[in-house]
Structures are given as C-alpha cells and as structure tokens.
Amino acid sequence: MAELATIARPYAEALFRVAKAGNLTVWSEIVAEMAHLASHPDVAALSRNPKVSDSDIAATFLSLMKSPLNAETQNFTRMLVENGRISLLPEIATQFQALKNAQEGAADAEITSAFPITDGQVTSLLAALERKFGRKLNPSVHVDNALIGGVRVVVGDEVLDTSVRAKLQQMHVALSA
Q1: pLDDT tens sequence across 45-100
Q2: What is d(CA 88, CA 21) in angstroms, rounded to the nearest whole number?
C-alpha cells in the first residue's frame, strides 16, 4: 500500500493545487465520484484491457461521471488513463481529502453505531466529538449490528470505542488474564 500512496501523492497534490483556485467542496465531490467509479470492477477491467485505446477508456470513464466536468477534470482523467494510473483514483481521493481537511483544520470521523441514529443524534454526538478532538469533523455514519450497543468513532488514528462489544472484550481479557 505504501507504494500506491507514494505514486498517488503527486497526483493528489497537483489536483489539490488546481482545486484551491476553484471551489474546493465541488472538487472534493468530483474526486470522490471519480474514485468510486474507478473502483468499480467493470471500469477496472476496461482500464486494463489492452484492446481498448486510451482515448476510448477516457471517453467511457468521463461519460459515466454524473457531475458536470470542466476542462481540468477531463485533462486529469485523460492523463491518468494515458499513464495507466486510473486505478490510483481511490488513493488519490483519500490523499486529496486529507489535504482538504488539513487546509480547513478538519478531520474525517467514521461513526459506527449499533443501531440507526437520527440526524439530531448525529449533530449532538458531533458537537461533543468536536469538543473532544478540538477540530471540525466531517462525519460518515455506518450501522454495524455486531457492536451490540453504543458507538465506535475513528478520527484519523484515534479510536473512541464505547460499544458493548468493546466492553465485553475488555471484560474477557481481564477475566482470562
């Protein structure tokens, strides 16, 4: 993985420099959509097919995009295809988001709950988490019934696990020690 990150870094930084001149939020959405599209198995298979020309791959990829595309996005896509780097888009998107978060003094928060939580509960939880972590958080909420109860929050390399499953695991370790 480190090799992919190393290869993707210059692309993410160049794209971020272009995005800073425009609307960073719009660019972030476009890059996320491109990454999602590039990770689709059919798109990956098309990009690896030696019988399909680079221009056809780029045209197909761009036609699958739902977001309105500007010249920079089209050129970036063509350049990735020509260099055989379309598969790097998920890593490019990850690094782009990290650069965006660093610029905004924010961080991504992955919130996993045992049960579906309402928007009001997310807002309340987010306010408490922002005070705890001391920065603005961009939440993504998931449901995992295996937690049994409670929530698990991952912000960067920090984990706050208040789930019942985590507490049961702690009790198991304490009792078996």
Answers
A1: 999 999 999 999 999 999 999 988 899 999 999 999 999 999 999 999 999 999 99
A2: 23
Q: What are the residues facing 161 on neighbouring strands? A: 152
At 19, list the tokens: 């995005």
CA 42 to CA 48: how far, in whole Å? 10
Taking residues 102-122, report their average pLDDT: 93
Angle among Cα 116, 120, 121 to the nearest 5 degrees reads 50
Nearest to 37 by CA among 71, 74, 63, 70: 63
- pTM of the predicted protein model: 0.78
Determine the distance from the C-alpha atom of residue 44 to the mean position of all C-alpha atoms in its chain, rounded to a whole number. 18
CA distances for 103 relative to 80, 107, 155, angstroms: 25, 10, 16
Q: The sheet that has 106-113: what strands, in order across it? A: 136-143, 106-113, 151-155, 158-161
